[in-house]
Every structure is written in C-alpha cells, then in structure tokens.
C-alpha cells in the first residue's frame, strides 16, 4: 500500500478548501452566474464591478496554488484570460507566477531539505537533486518551459540549486510565457464558446494532462539530453 505523505494531505486539504469555497461562491451568486453564462460577454463587466479587488484576489489565489499546488496552473491561466482579457490575463498570471516562485523557493531555502521532503518523495528529490547539481540552470529552465507532471513543484527543485534567486525568477519569468500566452488566449476566446466548445475544451485539457503524465519520462530524457549537450563536461 502506498504510504500517505504529509504533502499529499496538505495538497488534498487545500484543494478541498478551494473547491468548497468555489462551490459556496457559486451557490451564493448562482442567479448572477447563471445570467452571466447565458450572456458570456458580460462576464468581464461583472468582474470589473469588484474594482481593484478582482485582480488582487486572482493573484492571491494563483500564488496560493503555486505554493501548495492543488490545481494545475494552466487552469488559472485560462481563468485569467476569461476574466481579464488576453493582455490582462497574461500580465496577472505572469506576476502571480513570479511572486509564487519567489515565495516557494525562499520558503524551501529557509527551512531546508526536510520541509521539501514533505511534498516530494525521497526518490524523486534525490533524482532531481542530482540532475540540478550536474546540469545546472539549463535543466531547470527546460522544466519551466515544457509541460511536465511536476508543474509548479519545479520551484521546489530550483531551491536545491545554488543558483541565485534573481536568476531563477528570470527563468520563471521567461519560461512561463509560452503557456501563459496560449492558455490566456483560450480563456479570452471562451466568452464566445457554446456547449460543444466547452465539451471539446474540457476534453482537450484532460487529454493534455493525461498526455503529459504518460510521456513525462521522454520529457525528462529530453531535458537531460539538451542540458548534457549544452553542459557536456560539467560534473
């Protein structure tokens, strides 16, 4: 039987709290939400009514999910585009990614390897520890760009390295841009979706996550090969 790790409990609990909060909010605002999805072009007008608190709440939630990682960041990028438009979604998601990474890496470096082992198994931690120390920033940068099962847990891996924080944040700021652009664009376009579009989009997200999980080994091997080619003599 698989051993239950504290990190799994924390992630499950945080995800459950977020889900419960969303359900409570939907129940509370159901008449308005029902109207909005019947008239999707009004969604942004509704969000704008919250004033400055709308983007603040979005950033806080995004940063929280990066630190605890209960839901895929791709969904947050999509929501950013839906709620704030393509440009606004990209900017807010980008800011959230950088802030979340800064907090995650700083926490892990402050409290050390023991805290990291709560969220990551010893086997994975030792494996990626070796990769990071042998291949340096290139391996990490590839993981920030290419979709992989680690998701925002890559920040934990980054904390293992001796790379300066500002350099790691530069990797995040650059590496996350492609996924932010695509997901935010889809979110922006979703205000024109009908039922079949939402079904296809949902199926696409499921296929993406399943595909990333199934091919994570080739993705890891690709990252190792590229980093080895760029740093062939580094021990």
Q: What is this structure's SSE topology?
A:
Blueprint: H1 6-28, H2 30-38, H3 43-48, H4 53-68, H5 73-111, H6 113-119, H7 122-135, H8 137-145, H9 154-158, H10 165-175, H11 177-189, H12 195-214, H13 216-230
Helix pairs in contact: 4-5, 5-10, 5-11, 8-10, 8-13
Summary of the model, kept short:
This protein is mainly α. α5 packs antiparallel against α10 and α5 packs antiparallel against α11. Helices cover 80% and strands 0% of the residues.
Could you say how many structural domains there are in total?
1
Estimated structural class: mainly alpha
Number of strands: 0
Summed up, the helix count is 13
Describe the sheet with the most strands: none
Strand content: under 5%
What would you call the quaternary organization?
single chain
- The shape, in one word, is globular
- Helical residue percent band: over 70%
N/C terminus separation: 37 Å
Low-confidence stretches: none
The SSE order reads HHHHHHHHHHHHH
How confident is the prediction overall: mean pLDDT?
76
Question: What is the C-alpha radius of gyration, as a whole number of Å?
Answer: 19 Å
Could you explain how this protein is built, in words?
The chain has helices at residues 6-28, 30-38, 43-48, 53-68, 73-111, 113-119, 122-135, 137-145, 154-158, 165-175, 177-189, 195-214, 216-230. With 235 residues, it is mostly helical. The chain has one domain (6-230).
